[in-house]
């Protein structure tokens, strides 16, 4: 746990979103991510519960209190590595997942859960450097995160022009 009294001192602050009228006029990003400093503050709200109910809520059992702690300590690369240990696609699960982890968070007793989804998408997508080039470099493959899926599946890493098998 980054800060034992964080949940008492820091108010929940979530990401912002463009209004629907604005969104439907373009294909641009509509999520307004929190600045890094605010993300770290929000991660400090995590109480590192003895029984982390967020784990039960997360469909992929992300190690939420552990990477909240790493985000708080500004260790984004380590946080990303930990995210990838349970989740091959944090950059988009952080966007499309309805965040049952937040519903399950102990701090949700008074409707102020830790902003778990925001930390996940920030770590997985922007700050963590989880771009295809990063992944290709790490996995020595053009197949991105699939190359690290522990499923024993064949991975096809070649690129084909449209219409050419
Ligand atoms: S339930 Fe909430 S406060 Fe507890 S460990 Fe999980 S994210 Fe942190």
Measured between the Cα atoms of the first and last residue, the distance is 51 Å
Helix and strand sequence: HEHEHHHHHHHH
Q: What's the β-strand tally?
A: 2
Integer average pLDDT = 79
Strand content: under 5%
Output the CATH topology.
Answer: Fumarate Reductase Iron-sulfur Protein, Chain B, domain 2
CATH class: Mainly Alpha
The strand order across the widest sheet is 1-2
Low-confidence runs:
127-150
Gross morphology: globular
Number of domains: 1
CATH superfamily: Alpha-helical ferredoxin
Discrete helix count: 10
Q: Give me the CATH architecture, please.
A: Orthogonal Bundle
Query: Approximately how much helix is present in the residues?
Result: 40-55%
Q: Cα-atom Rg, whole angstroms?
A: 17 Å
Structure description:
The chain has 165 residues and is mainly alpha-helical. The protein has one domain: Fumarate Reductase Iron-sulfur Protein, Chain B, domain 2 (Orthogonal Bundle). It contains ten helices and two strands; from the N terminus they run H-E-H-E-H-H-H-H-H-H-H-H. A two-stranded antiparallel sheet has the order 1-2. Helix 3 (36-43) packs across helix 9 (116-126) and helix 5 (64-72) packs antiparallel against helix 6 (76-84). The longest helix is centred in the C-terminal third of the chain and has 11 residues, at 116-126. It is globular, with a radius of gyration of 17 Å. It starts with 5 loop residues before the first helix and ends in a 26-residue tail after the last helix. Residues 127-150 have low confidence and may be disordered. The protein binds iron/sulfur cluster. Iron/sulfur cluster is lined by residues 46-49, 52-54, 64-65, 105-107, 114, 116.
